[in-house]
Amino acid sequence: MSLQVKIIKANNGLRLACFFRKKYTFSNHYECSINVNGQIFTTTEQYFMYIKAKTFGDEKAAQDILNTSNPQQAKRIGRKVKNFDAKVWNAKRIGVMKFINKTKFEQNAELRKQLLDTGDYVIVEASPFDKFWGSGIGMSDKRIKDPTKWGANMLGQVLMEIRKEFRAQMDQTTSSSEQNGVTDEPPDK
């Protein structure tokens, strides 16, 4: 599977790995199996909205979210969670997003490879509709090349943080193997 992002060179010279919509593996709407404590979720969006409903005790919404594999439907249900408190959710949402995305990439080797294959590119959710999780600017909009024009791009930030953690784990594993005399080289005869 080739890297599923659109590469754009920013005005400041940075390379951007842009994605938006479910066809891109980094999207919260991308379908893949994610197992959390024995419960299978079909998208990170489904899990995110499920936790939102559970946080506020809306069991009906939580069950309805589990019963749909459509991430847009899960999002619609999640927007109507009863007893919702923005202050509480705002304090929790980034941690939830990081957890489910890290789980997604830990459990899906090909997706993890794609994340690592972005190298040092800036990962951007090029959503023209979302200035918090995304850039607030679409891929075809010339302003995407100017990061000073973006929104928070929190999903991109979360993905880059996860990428950094995976690299650190790989470096630590390599370092431990070398210290224990384990190498990829065959032993001398």
Automatic annotation (TrEMBL):
Recorded superkingdom: Eukaryota
Ranges of residues in domain NADAR: 22-167
InterPro entries with a match to the protein in the record: NADAR (IPR012816), YbiA-like_sf (IPR037238)
Polar residues bias locations: 170-182
Location of region: Disordered: 168-189
Protein's UniProt name: N-glycosidase
Lineage start: Eukaryota, Metazoa, Ecdysozoa, Nematoda, Chromadorea
